[in-house]
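FW: tagging you since you asked about this chain on Friday. Here's the raw sequence from the shared folder, copied in full. Didn't touch anything.
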Amino acid sequence: MKSTKHYFSLIAQKSAADLISEARRGYLGILWWIIEPVIYMSVFYLIFVVVLDRGGEDRVAFLLTGLVVWKWFVSSIPQCANCISANIGLIRQVYIPKHVFPAMVVMTSTTKFLIILVLLIAFLIIAGKSPSAAWLSLPVLMGVQLLVTLAIGSVLSAIVPFIPDLKLIVDNGMILLFFLSGVFFDISSASPEIKSYLYLNPMVLIIENYRKVLLDGVWPDWSMLGTVLSISLGGLALGWYLLRRFDGTYVKVI
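HL: got it, structure written out here
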């Protein structure tokens, strides 16, 4: 129990240090955490809503919800894949259990996500979306997405040091997943054959349920979330097993 508390404390302190360091690197500091995703979302809004005229009546809220949720995921996975190599100097100086590193990355990106989520909710309320009881399920949705991200990030962080080229596949794979996760379109409009394959991507289910809660005011699909949660726990166990299994090997291969 003591060591568990110690690791949680280490993760929190390292994440806070990374956030402070990142904020101090530029003149805008913490404001950049808000400006960067706003620019990111504005670009896609101009392309898909203004230029291509895609979407329905709630297209702005629909698009922004998908982009905010996706941004949390995409800001975590590539960094998790590279987190062992990025911290090899620290690893050589002091022993730290390797599962701490992807956890640090995810905690840092989660902090930024919470700020943007508050802004999104404020925008939705201003746009006329009334808070409903279903919004109380947001912490559950966030918890499921956190576990999905940590599971995938842990597995990748464990194997990328042995196969460095996999990092390139991850970076390009995130672009492909971006367009297959329902950020720009409603999955329900796809044909049944295509839909069955799209639902293999956990981010499709997560983004879809965020929209159900925030835009439609209905409760998420608990059975689907339960399935995603179960698979994520299995993936997290696998990732942590691999990180423990190769704990002493990373210094030799990097």
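FW: The chain has one domain: 2-253.
HL: agreed, and The chain has 13 helices and no strands.
FW: great, closing this out.
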